Structure formats: structure tokens, C-alpha cells
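Researcher: First entry.
Model:
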Amino acid sequence: MAGLAATSMASAGAFETGSRPAHDKTLQAGLDALVKPGGVADGLLPGALMSVRNPDGRVTNYTAGVGDIRTKSKVPTDGYVRIASNTKMFVSVAVLQLAGDGKLALDDTVEKHLPGVVRGTGAGAAIDGRNMTIRQLLNHTSGMTRAMPLMPNGILPIKDRYFEARELLDAALAEAPTFAPGQDRVWEYSNAGYVLLGLVTQKVAGRPLAEVITDQIINRIGLKETYYPGPGDRDIRSPHPRGYLTATDAEGKPIPGKLTDITRFDPSIAGAAGQMIATPSDVNKFLVALQAGQLLKPQQLAEMRKTITAPGFPESWTYGLGVIGMKLSCGVMAYGHGGDADGFQSRTAITTDGRAVTLAVTNDEAGRGEVLAFFDKALCATK
């Protein structure tokens, strides 16, 4: 898909709009259906929350289900959730800001900024930072592994373990690459590639990645409910719903109707690929500011939205530099991302005419197809 320049949007003042339009009854019914016991997700999605922002800045927040299956408490309106791989959009913006300031170029090799660091070992011996560019990391054409080798048995055995970014990278460098960097028409999603981008960003900026994202993105556009958890932070700020995993037996088989609470864990296992936490409305504010040109210069935003084919994603989706291009069922184009952290599944995007939707549910494993279908419906709605 061709890159798109920044679309004219409502002014920054619209960020403070406090109007509370009536809920769209059709969208509320669709959200209720996702969490209905015995419904489309077999009752494995306890709760859902969504924020919709119209082009004029009007915001409507929706909830459904329960926020805690033990107490049956309500889902908090616009509560905090782990936004997981939506973090990649923030990392991409940080990298593109450095590019816009002339501190790096997208076609620089990784070697230029981290000399001698990226050398594969064992099965990953073919990995070499001299043959890998910043752009390839951003759009998942670097060949870095898709695997997360430090969690072979899922999150539960390591939920309280803290991981340094270099530890994550070293584990990935021992995994065989999926293909040669930049190989024609080859694409493979890689969390490890974004962990590496986080290290590149730190080196070029001369500051920790969390600080760069906080200063250059979060504080710049006034996101009050978005943050990058610090070392050792296993909790989620309040208010928030609980997050769940589908329970399994001793053989790893799902136990019908049973859930395990995984709200509290150390997200450092995801690092720059998926560590952040935010409320749905704040993620929408980020998307609006990004599209309005408040975070990137027009050239860098256009680069971000130059997308390529992404095998394994829905047929109408393509991938740019840390952002997904989504051709919706109504024919409208939207840009955003998604994230699956243990306990939370989220989808977010903004249409080219400025309708932003962020949807989150409290189980990252259940009902993914149904969640995507409803997300498309919410973006295509007009209220």
C-alpha cells in the first residue's frame, strides 16, 4: 500500500473534550455478546472495555461482563489494561523521531549503532547485525526469530521473573533466523526484533527506552493514563479489570470453563515488544496525535504507513513500520495495531477520517476471531 501523509484532524484541544454522547445500542449489544456465558467465546472472556472517539473529539466508553470473576465486580469504565504489542507503535515513533532529527537513518545497519552486539550463536549463527537494517526490524523483514525462547512453558513458571533486554536478545540470537534479512516478499512477526530496536533507541538517544517514550511521546501529547512499567513492577494501576488465562490440566490441555488469574506478572519478558500499560481512551489519544502530525514529521509518518504484505495476518491487513494497515469490511482504511499479553487481548486503530477505537478483553487466548470481527464493526460504525 502507498504511504499516506498526515490526515487533517481535530485540534489538540479536542483531547480535552468531556462530552458524553449516548451509547450506540448496537455496539453495546455486540460487546455484551462477546462476554455472554455460553456465547461466541464459550464464556472464556469475562470482561470487555472499549473506547470510541469520533472525528469531532466526542468520546464514548463501553464495558461488558465482569471485572473480577471471584467478586463479580463491574468492569471499570476505561480501566487500565496491558496493551502488549501496541507498544510497538510507541517504539516505532521513538525510532522515527530519531530519524526525523537526523540521528539515524532507517536504512542504517544495526551494526552502525550497536557495533559487535548482534552476532548469532549456535542455531542462530547466521544472524549478523552488519546485514540487518533498522527498517527491516521495524517492518519484520529482518529474519529475527518469532519464538520467545525464554518462556517455553508459558507465563506461569516465569511470572515473577525479571528479564534484562540484553538477556532477551541473547536468547533470540541463539535461535535460527526465519530467512535472510530483507529477502524478497518474506515477512515474519518478531518480538525479538523490537527488543533489539529498544536497544538501538537507547544507544542513539543516550537514555533508557522507557524515559525516551515517556518524554518524547507520553508527556509531549499529555497522555495521563499511559506508562511503561519500571523494573520489577508486576502490578497494573487502578482501576483495572483482572486478566485471565484459560486453565489447563497437568498435560497442558484446556479445562472447559476454567480460568486462571494472571493479572499480576512481570512484563519484562516482552520488553520493548510489549511491556506498556494504558487505558483505551488514552491509546485513542495517541492515535489521534500521531495521525495529526503531533509526534512525527510528514516524511516519517508517510514512511510509517508504507506497508507490505504480512502473511498470517488477516487478508486485508498489511504491515508498515510498527503499524498495521487495515482495510475494513466497509471499505475504509485504518491504521493501528493489536496486542496479546497474558490476560489481556487488545485491538486499536484510527480510520483515515479520524474515528479511533480501542477494544480490550480480559483473556488473550479466547474468541480472537470474534473480537476482530466486532472491532471491525466498531470502526465502521458512524456513532
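Researcher: Second entry.
Model:
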Amino acid sequence: MRFRHLGRSGLKISEITYGNWITHGSQVENDTAAACVRAALDAGITTFDTADVYANTKAEEVLGDALAGERRESLEIFTKVYFPTGPKGHNDTGLSRKHIMESINGSLRRLGTDYVDLYQAHRFDYATPLEETMQAFADVVRSGKAHYIGVSEWTAEQLRSGHALARELGISLVSSQPQYSMVWRVIEEEVVPTSAELGISQIVFSPVAQGVLTGKYLPGQPAPEGSRAADTQGGATMIGGLLGKEELLRRVQDLRPVAEELNLTMAQLAVAWVLQNDNVAAALIGASRPEQVAENVAASGVEIPEEMLTRIDQILGETVVRDPRITDDVSPKERLC
């Protein structure tokens, strides 16, 4: 396992980071989830990412239980705040001071730790003044409940404004967590250059595009049994839009010779691809089976030759989504409850 600095900070994280977005507390049993976390630890992963909203707080509990007994100082634990949790009352969402202060306490309790290494704004909150949000984050850091601050799916302009306020308040905004993969590159034009300028790293999710880049989904054929697209507890909903793109699925199959030439599986190729970007500190992987962790971790340290990167671009062609304006549509413009 290789490690990279998170932004312009002194914190190093494992370049393959384990995330439990749509598996723990919902799609897999707790003993399987614990086995996946154990596989991650055995493979050298030290960084774990979750959020209070995942499985309506249950994912944090599962991760906390799975990491119990590990040396806390040897781990980097990340979580997030923004989306509705609990009974989803009128203040149970967003980035108000009230919600942030109550949410960090709940997250720490569920995770079984006194602090998180990174506390992230899960989306941009248009209903709360950014000054209020950043002041609350500063107080969370000064209280010792978080070491660093990050965001998820913020635009370049939002990153710049948040970073400026963080500097005024004397705290470190060091990371951005966007979706990023061979076929989803909306951050490349604006978010990545801005982040590089400001000393912010990307921790990218969905590097295998919900499983599409594994090549398991064949054009014109039903989803394989046991795959995410066959899951009725949320997985099928998440991946549905991609599976309807027949041309994309065909072109993904054309990536197989590239993976074979590099002696990689399709999943390893996808994970290694995002790590070629210098602004990416880590690729977030999830797993429903321990063996998936071992496969993805093998992408750590892989260097893809420039000619292969060009070939990948040529194969995927116009199926790649690049419009940077999409990021602005990710954060809800109004409160969710």
C-alpha cells in the first residue's frame, strides 16, 4: 500500500481508502461488513470513509464496531455531515451550526472514537451562510473533535470561497470528495485545477463507476445475479442510469485488451486510472465481499503508461461525461426537510 499527503497538509492517507457508502448497514450483513473491514486492514488500508446519512447512521455504527480494538492512532477515519438523519426534522439536515454541532457528537458516539481525522461537508448548503458553516467547522476542529475539514461535490467557486474562510479562521480545508472515473470526468476542467492551486486533494468515489468499469455488465444482457444492479435494496437504483447506456457498455468491453496488456483486472485498471491524476490523494473503494478488497488494493502503485492512457481515451470517446456544470446541480438548492 502506498500513501499520499492529503492536500497541503502533513496528513498521509492510504491511496486506496475503504468506504461503506451503500453496503454497510443495508446491503450486507454486519459480519460480512466486518470481514470486509478486516480484509482492508490486512491489505494495508488505514483510511476509512463513511457518513452519518449512510443507512441512516447505521453505517457509522457498523464501521465503529468493525474497527473496535484497533490502535486509533494508526487509522484515519473520515465522516460527513449534511443530509437528513434520524427522524428527519426541520433542523436535521444542512450545514447550520446546530446541525453540525449535533451531528459531530452523534458520529463520534457511533464510531466509538473521540475524534475523526477528517470531517466533511457532504454537499454545499445554499440555505446557510457559508460563514456560519465554516465557523462551526472551526469550532469542531478547535474542540479536538476533528483534525481537518473537507467537502464533497463542491464547485470550484465554492471551494475557493470555503478555503478563504477556512484560512481566515485558522483551520485546514484539505480535501474534496467528488465522483470521478474514466467515464465521469466533470472535475477535470475546473475543480482539479482550482484544488491544485489551493492545496486541496481529491478523495474520489465510484472509481469503477458503480461496477460498470468491471466489465461485468454486458450490453443487451440482464445484470449478473448477485451484482449491484440486481440488488433491490438500493444498488439497482444507483446504477440504473449507467446500465441504460448501451454504447458505454460496449466501449467498456473494448477496454479488456488494455487491462490484459497491463496484467490487471478491469476493476484494477479503473482504480489505477484515477490514481494517475496527481491531484487525487485516494480512490474510495467499497465491497460486499472481502475478496473484492484484495482485488482493488492491487491497483496501489500501478503506473499506466501515457500511451495506454491515450488509448483508453480513444476507446471511451464521446461516452465520457465531462461537463463541469454538472457539479453545480449536485447540491440541493433547497432544504431537504
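Model: Note on the second entry: The radius of gyration is 19 Å.
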